[in-house]
């Protein structure tokens, strides 16, 4: 809704998508008139709104850049963790220790029924 604030606990709670898709999501939030707030990321939007001319453009540009950097860092962290997980699984498989996820018999019964 216009004027509302979307608050995310951490930037990776917004999206783990690649940067282009994450930016699309953020732009969709902004297009609806809402503002995005993430603790730990400097929010210059109110200062930019109060400014005019070149200062406004610069502050908006810096705000967008900070958000892009944070989104990319969140994506990189996600990819690093997935890669380490894959390496751990490969190592466990080579040692004959990997068993995978335990089957959920209750869910399987519901699917079959």
From TrEMBL:
Look up the signal peptide feature and give its range: none
Keywords attached to this entry? DNA integration, DNA recombination, DNA-binding
One annotated GO molecular function: DNA binding
Task: Return the PROSITE patterns for the record.
Answer: RECOMBINASES_2, RECOMBINASES_3
User: Which ranges carry the Resolvase/invertase-type recombinase catalytic domain?
Assistant: 1-88
What InterPro entries has UniProt attached to this entry?
Recombinase_CS (IPR006118), Resolv_N (IPR006119), Resolvase-like_N_sf (IPR036162)
User: Some GO term, biological process aspect, for this entry: which one?
Assistant: DNA integration
Q: What domain of life does the UniProt record list for this protein's source?
A: Bacteria
Protein name (record):
Stability/partitioning determinant
Q: What is the organism of origin for this protein?
A: Pseudomonas savastanoi (Pseudomonas syringae pv. savastanoi)
């Amino acid at each position: 809704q216009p004027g509302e604030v979307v608050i995310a606990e951490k930037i990776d709670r917004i999206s783990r998508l690649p940067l282009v898709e994450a930016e699309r999501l953020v732009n969709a939030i902004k297009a609806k008139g809402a503002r995005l707030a993430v603790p730990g990321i400097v929010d210059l939007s109110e200062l930019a709104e109060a400014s005019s001319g070149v200062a406004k453009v610069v502050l908006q540009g810096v705000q967008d850049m900070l958000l892009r950097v944070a989104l990319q860092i969140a994506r990189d962290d996600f990819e690093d963790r997935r890669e380490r997980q894959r390496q751990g699984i490969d190592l466990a498989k080579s040692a004959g220790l990997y068993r995978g996820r335990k089957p959920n018999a209750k869910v399987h019964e519901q699917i079959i029924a």
